[in-house]
Design goal:
2 strands, binds zinc ion
Length: about 100
Protein backbone atom coordinates (compact mmCIF):
# COMPACT_ATOMS: atom_id res chain seq x y z
CA UNK A 1 0.00 0.00 0.00
CA UNK A 2 1.41 3.41 -0.82
CA UNK A 3 1.86 6.16 1.73
CA UNK A 4 -0.67 8.49 0.17
CA UNK A 5 -3.39 5.84 0.33
CA UNK A 6 -2.50 5.01 3.94
CA UNK A 7 -2.76 8.68 4.90
CA UNK A 8 -6.11 9.03 3.16
CA UNK A 9 -7.46 5.87 4.80
CA UNK A 10 -6.29 7.06 8.22
CA UNK A 11 -7.86 10.48 7.64
CA UNK A 12 -11.04 8.82 6.41
CA UNK A 13 -11.44 6.95 9.72
CA UNK A 14 -10.71 10.03 11.85
CA UNK A 15 -13.07 12.37 10.02
CA UNK A 16 -15.96 9.87 10.25
CA UNK A 17 -15.27 9.23 13.92
CA UNK A 18 -14.70 12.82 15.06
CA UNK A 19 -16.69 14.90 12.55
CA UNK A 20 -19.77 13.01 11.28
CA UNK A 21 -21.68 16.30 10.66
CA UNK A 22 -24.97 14.53 9.70
CA UNK A 23 -26.76 17.86 9.10
CA UNK A 24 -23.94 19.00 6.78
CA UNK A 25 -23.67 22.32 8.60
CA UNK A 26 -21.69 24.90 6.55
CA UNK A 27 -21.92 22.73 3.39
CA UNK A 28 -20.10 24.71 0.65
CA UNK A 29 -22.22 23.14 -2.15
CA UNK A 30 -21.68 20.60 -4.92
CA UNK A 31 -20.36 23.22 -7.36
CA UNK A 32 -17.52 24.12 -5.01
CA UNK A 33 -16.65 20.45 -4.37
CA UNK A 34 -16.70 19.70 -8.11
CA UNK A 35 -14.34 22.59 -8.77
CA UNK A 36 -12.07 21.40 -5.97
CA UNK A 37 -12.05 17.88 -7.42
CA UNK A 38 -11.22 19.24 -10.88
CA UNK A 39 -8.72 21.99 -10.02
CA UNK A 40 -7.37 21.67 -6.46
CA UNK A 41 -4.65 24.24 -7.14
CA UNK A 42 -7.13 26.82 -8.43
CA UNK A 43 -9.46 26.60 -5.44
CA UNK A 44 -7.04 26.67 -2.47
CA UNK A 45 -9.53 28.32 -0.18
CA UNK A 46 -8.42 27.65 3.37
CA UNK A 47 -11.98 27.94 4.71
CA UNK A 48 -13.25 25.26 2.30
CA UNK A 49 -10.32 22.94 3.01
CA UNK A 50 -10.79 23.50 6.76
CA UNK A 51 -14.46 22.57 6.41
CA UNK A 52 -13.69 19.36 4.51
CA UNK A 53 -11.20 18.33 7.18
CA UNK A 54 -14.08 18.53 9.69
CA UNK A 55 -16.99 17.15 7.67
CA UNK A 56 -17.28 13.45 6.81
CA UNK A 57 -20.10 13.87 4.22
CA UNK A 58 -18.14 16.52 2.27
CA UNK A 59 -14.98 14.41 2.46
CA UNK A 60 -16.92 11.43 1.08
CA UNK A 61 -18.46 13.54 -1.68
CA UNK A 62 -15.07 14.96 -2.68
CA UNK A 63 -13.52 11.49 -2.64
CA UNK A 64 -16.31 10.18 -4.88
CA UNK A 65 -15.99 13.13 -7.29
CA UNK A 66 -12.23 12.55 -7.55
CA UNK A 67 -12.73 8.81 -8.04
CA UNK A 68 -15.18 9.45 -10.87
CA UNK A 69 -12.75 11.88 -12.51
CA UNK A 70 -9.89 9.42 -12.26
CA UNK A 71 -12.10 6.79 -13.93
CA UNK A 72 -12.57 9.13 -16.88
CA UNK A 73 -8.94 9.86 -17.67
CA UNK A 74 -5.41 8.69 -16.87
CA UNK A 75 -4.49 9.00 -13.20
CA UNK A 76 -2.58 12.11 -12.22
CA UNK A 77 -0.95 11.85 -8.82
CA UNK A 78 0.21 15.38 -8.37
CA UNK A 79 -0.70 18.74 -9.76
CA UNK A 80 2.26 20.97 -10.38
CA UNK A 81 2.13 24.70 -10.58
CA UNK A 82 5.22 26.37 -11.95
CA UNK A 83 5.66 30.06 -11.48
CA UNK A 84 8.12 32.29 -13.30
CA UNK A 85 10.00 34.51 -10.92
CA UNK A 86 11.40 37.93 -11.89
CA UNK A 87 14.97 36.62 -11.68
CA UNK A 88 14.20 34.05 -14.35
CA UNK A 89 14.30 31.03 -12.04
CA UNK A 90 11.40 28.70 -11.52
CA UNK A 91 9.46 28.39 -8.31
CA UNK A 92 7.46 25.21 -8.18
CA UNK A 93 4.55 24.28 -5.98
CA UNK A 94 3.17 20.78 -5.79
CA UNK A 95 -0.12 19.68 -4.40
CA UNK A 96 -0.78 15.97 -4.15
CA UNK A 97 -4.18 14.52 -3.38
CA UNK A 98 -2.97 13.69 0.13
CA UNK A 99 -1.40 17.14 0.49
CA UNK A 100 -4.71 18.76 -0.22
CA UNK A 101 -6.19 17.47 3.01
CA UNK A 102 -2.99 17.12 5.03
CA UNK A 103 -1.96 20.75 4.49
ZN1 LIG B 1 -19.58 19.54 4.76
Amino acid sequence: MNLEKELLDAFDRVVHQDHPNPERIDYPGTTVLQKLAAEPVAVQSESILAHIRRCAPCFDELKELRRRRSDQRPQIDATAQVLHRPDGKFAGKFLTRAGLIAA
